[in-house]
Amino acid sequence: MAGKLRRSRRDRVLAGVCGGLGEFFGINPLWFRLAFILAAMPGGIPGIFSYMICWLIIPRE
């Protein structure tokens, strides 16, 4: 793990949550993006809600 968990300013699509998680865990942010998309597929609520919680909790870089 690399340092503190922060939302990325460089690797962002919407709010930088997946980019920040990718930097923190040292893996490609694409995997986090896919996980949020898959969680949003069934009804939308689990993926969207968890992404919004991360957006609010994880501070900006």
Q: Spans of 5+ residues with little confidence (pLDDT < 50)?
A: none
Tally of separate domains: 1
Q: N-to-C terminal Cα separation, in Å?
A: 16 Å
Look at the helices and sheets and give the structural class.
Answer: mainly alpha
Number of helices: 3
Oligomeric assembly: single chain
Helix content: 55-70%
Largest sheet features? none
Mean pLDDT, nearest integer?
Answer: 87
* H and E order: HHH
Strand content: under 5%
Count all strands and give the number: 0
| Gyration radius over CA | 11 Å
Shape descriptor reads globular
What does this protein structure show overall?
This protein has 3 helices and no strands. By secondary structure, the chain is an all-alpha fold. It has one domain (about 1-60). Helix 1 packs across helix 2 (about 30-40) and helix 2 crosses helix 3 (about 45-55). The mean pLDDT is about 85.
Quick summary of this structure?
The protein is an all-alpha fold and 61 residues long.
Task: Describe the secondary structure blueprint for this structure.
Layout: H1 17-25, H2 29-40, H3 45-57
Name the descriptors:
61 residues
